[in-house]
Design brief:
- By secondary structure, this protein is α/β, with parallel strands linked by helices.
- 38% of the residues lie in helices and 20% in strands.
- The chain has helices spanning 26-38, 53-65, 79-89, 105-112, 116-130, 149-162, 178-191, 211-220, 242-251, 267-278, 299-307, 335-345, 352-368, 374-382, 429-441, 485-500; strands at residues 7-10, 43-47, 70-76, 95-102, 137-142, 166-171, 199-204, 225-228, 327-329, 372-373, 392-400, 408-415, 418-425, 446-454, 463-471, 474-482.
- The strands form four sheets. It has an eight-stranded parallel barrel with strand order 1-2-3-4-5-6-7-8, surrounded by eight helices. The chain has a three-stranded antiparallel beta sheet with strand order 11-12-13.
- β6, α7 (178-191) and β7 form a beta-alpha-beta unit.
- α10 packs parallel to α14 (374-382).
- The protein starts with 6 loop residues before the first strand and ends in an 11-residue tail after the last helix.
- The relative contact order is 0.10.
- It binds 3-methyl-2-oxobutanoic acid and zinc ion.
- 3-methyl-2-oxobutanoic acid binds next to β5 and β6.
Length: 511
């Protein structure tokens, strides 16, 4: 089944969510899924429905709201996981079940405690059961990279016979190198009985920084589905990044005999949204979506680009959505214009109440900042209070700092609806603010990361703060945006505390 169409399978909402602290609420997942639909990804892996009732609801909500992309749930090769996945994707216009079982000796022996025959049996049974819910069934051999190729040929041959329609070959631990990975894909397609009846897929992790290179090598050798995530988010060092794969095949059509259906102008807005929601900033030198990806620093380069853009640019910034940095609304803009722009951006809240709250935050911001950009609107919506955000809420704050003196921060916030007033000194204003909040919140959480980025250009920009907290082995990211970076820090810290106060999610790769 080799065609010139590359199927883009986005797993930001599932594997991406397995990044430390990137756990998303149902509403956040729906917001990202709607943006992925605008990006025109073919398949959205919305989560792991069997993990918890919350995960089930999130997959179902995505299945209900997305119309143009296939919506998929991951499921281990067990009846109960597949039942949950089947029910969760049932409302989708097109639903897929993605079932998997590990096939490497180390995983079979040490993790599953199953012998190879039992694994083959479980894989066949899983695919057959999944087919009772949908005719779109994907099978993955977890840790295929360290699996015996003869065994992979056997398992894949059997699941194709059982009716699987997509066969995914994962480099679960990011161990492969491009030449080897491409060769493995080529041999699997050549040797597996029924290989021509299915779509071959690749799913690469980035532990050695080769996830994109490995995925592209698989494509050169016959894979026609790539599993990837926005900004390369994912378990440990992440997954192959969608934007890099898509732009590589588009820019180098001379090398890849295929292209995707992605609307590349939606790449940067997708990257921004995922970064804002997960609290994972994008490194400035990240290919395609990093702030420097199209910035020319050296005089020789600047001169060249001014004379003829293509002297130093192989892609156009506007083709990947960089033109989005526009002033869109101002202080006098009304609710309808606000709603319309959010709809155009694909981030309009679903309820009237959430829209009203977002609108009043927009008005507050417009009073303090004369130019409102798309990125500001996305930050406003990303900061929209979900049910989990209710426990801790910032009411007001003030702080004083003077050179040579210890800054003091006074914070008024609510805990479960009860207002508290706290004050503390600190080494700097952010330290004072966090210490003040901790006086009453008493979380005892450890701060792992504190980062501040400007959302747009200029000193008027809102600061976007990420605070990563760890408590009892659990890691969460809190995000906050405000023109005052100390206020943004307080919002981010309280947001992280809210996330810590919700139940942790299960990881499908742990039995
Ligand atoms: O990395 C992996 O093997 C996975 C599978 C579940 C596809 O995420
Ligand atoms: Zn993975």
């Amino acid at each position: 089944m080799n065609s010139d169409r590359l199927i883009v399978f986005d797993t930001t909402l599932r594997d991406g969510e397995q990044s430390p602290g990137a756990s998303m609420t149902k509403d956040e997942k729906v917001r990202i899924a709607k943006q992925l639909e605008r990006l025109r990804v073919d398949v959205i892996e919305a989560g792991f429905a069997a993990a918890s009732p919350g995960d089930f609801e999130a997959v179902r909500a995505v299945a209900e709201s997305v119309k143009d992309s296939t919506v998929c749930s991951l499921a281990r090769a067990t009846t109960s996981d597949i039942d949950a996945a089947g029910k969760a994707v049932a409302p989708a216009a097109r639903g897929r079940i993605h079932t998997f079982i590990a096939t490497s000796p180390i995983h079979m022996e040490k993790k599953l405690r199953m012998n190879p025959d039992q694994v083959v049996e479980a894989a066949i049974a899983a695919v057959r059961h999944a087919l009772s819910f949908t005719d779109d069934v994907e099978f993955s051999a977890e840790d295929a990279v360290r699996s015996d190729i003869d065994f992979l040929v056997r398992v894949f041959g059997e699941v194709i016979k059982a009716g699987a329609t997509t066969i995914n070959v994962p480099d679960t631990v990011g161990y492969s190198v491009p030449g080897q990975w491409g060769e493995r894909m080529r041999q699997l397609i050549e040797r597996t009985p029924g290989a021509d009846r299915v779509v071959w897929s690749t799913h690469c992790h980035n532990d050695l920084g080769m996830a994109v290179a490995n995925s592209l090598s698989a494509v050169l050798n016959g894979a026609r589905q790539v599993e990837c995530t926005i900004n390369g988010l994912g378990e440990r060092a992440g997954n192959a990044s969608l934007e890099e794969i898509v732009m590589a095949v588009k820019t180098r059509r001379d090398v890849f005999a295929c292209d995707s259906n992605i609307d590349t102008t939606q790449i940067v807005p997708s990257s921004r949204l995922v970064s804002q929601i997960t609290g994972y900033p994008v490194q400035p030198n990240k290919a395609v979506v990093g702030a420097n990806a199209f910035a020319h620093e050296s005089g020789i380069h600047q001169d060249g680009v001014l004379k003829h853009r293509e002297t130093y640019e192989i892609m156009r910034a506007e083709d990947v959505g960089w033109s989005a940095n526009r002033i869109v609304l101002g202080k006098l803009s009304g609710r309808n214009a606000f709603r319309q722009r959010l709809e155009e951006l694909g981030v309009a809240p679903s309820s009237e109440q959430a829209l009203n709250e977002a609108f009043s935050r927009f008005k507050e911001l417009a009073d303090r900042k004369s130019e409102i950009f798309d990125e500001d609107l996305q930050a406003i919506v990303a900061g929209e209070a979900g049910p989990s955000s209710e426990r801790y809420k910032l009411i007001s704050m003030s702080q004083s700092s003077e050179m040579g003196e210890k800054p003091v921060s006074r914070v008024v916030f609510s805990i479960g609806g009860e207002e508290v007033r706290v004050e503390s000194e600190g080494n700097g204003p952010v330290d004072a603010t966090v210490k003040a909040i901790e006086k009453e919140a008493k979380s005892g959480a450890e701060l792992l990361l504190f980062s501040v980025n400007a959302i747009t250009t200029g000193t008027e920009s809102q600061g976007e703060v990420t605070m990563r907290l760890q408590k009892a082995g659990r890691v969460v990211n809190g995000v906050g945006a405000d023109p005052d970076i100390v206020v943004a820090s307080a919002i981010a810290y309280l947001n992280a505390l809210n996330r810590l106060s919700t139940a942790p999610k299960a990881n499908p790769q742990q039995p």
